């Protein structure tokens, strides 16, 4: 069964509603290095994939340097696309989306939005298409989409992966399974009540 090490990007220099593609801040750079060291201690050299977003590419950099490889871009694990709304409204949209289900997200999407159910299905299908162990640098919602599929949950958020945390999934005969949810934390987007 292939193991997929889903790494949430480290702490960015700006929030999702402040900058469309921020890099990492100093804390994030330290987190990225610590995660790379953990992966190097616990895994042999594996293929590395990354969302094209800068925060994921920068989180992957320490590991790719240690393993003398490049992170292959993987579009299907990029950040969930926002609807065609003003940039300043994106954060509020994301908070509302994360409190509901995928069905609600799809039904309540503003005109011109992508098909969010299809986005989730394509993300899961892309993970199931991988037939080898690998490390994938991705995002909060993308990791939740994978975990939700494994747990047969329609909730957009099933758990709160911390920055630079590692969620381990397996492909068990064409079905995603959770091996280890990894470290959780409150987020600035959806803090615990």
Shape: globular
Largest sheet: 6 strands, mixed
Which regions are unreliable across 5 or more consecutive residues at pLDDT < 50? Answer: none
What's the total number of strands?
6
Helicity range of the residues? 25-40%
In angstroms, what is the radius of gyration? 16 Å
Which percent range describes the beta-strand content? 5-15%
Quaternary structure? single chain
Describe the protein's architecture and organization.
There is one protein chain. 36% of the residues lie in helices and 14% in strands. The protein is of the alpha/beta class and 193 residues long. Strands 3-2-4-1-5-6 form a 6-stranded mixed sheet. Strand 5 and strand 6 form a beta hairpin. It is globular and about 45 Å long. 36% of the residues are buried.
What labels would you give this structure?
single chain; 193 residues; alpha/beta; 6-stranded mixed beta sheet; 6 strands; 14% strand; globular
């Amino acid at each position: 069964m292939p193991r997929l090490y889903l790494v949430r990007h480290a702490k960015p220099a700006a929030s999702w509603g402040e900058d469309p593609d921020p890099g990492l801040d100093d804390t994030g750079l330290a987190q990225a290095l610590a995660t790379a060291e953990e992966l190097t201690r616990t895994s042999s050299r594996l293929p590395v994939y990354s969302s094209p977003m800068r925060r994921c590419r920068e989180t992957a950099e320490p590991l790719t340097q240690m393993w003398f490889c490049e992170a292959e871009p993987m579009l299907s694990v990029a950040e969930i696309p926002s609807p065609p709304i003003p940039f300043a409204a994106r954060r509020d949209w994301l908070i509302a989306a994360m409190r509901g289900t995928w069905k609600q997200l799809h039904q309540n999407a503003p005109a011109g939005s992508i098909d969010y159910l299809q986005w989730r299905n394509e993300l899961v299908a892309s993970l199931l298409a991988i037939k080898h162990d690998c490390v994938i640098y991705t995002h909060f919602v993308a990791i939740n989409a994978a975990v939700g599929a494994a747990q047969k949950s329609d909730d957009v958020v099933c758990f709160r992966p911390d920055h630079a945390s590692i969620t381990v999934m397996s492909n068990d005969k064409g079905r995603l399974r959770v091996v280890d949810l990894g470290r959780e934390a409150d987020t600035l987007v959806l803090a615990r009540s």
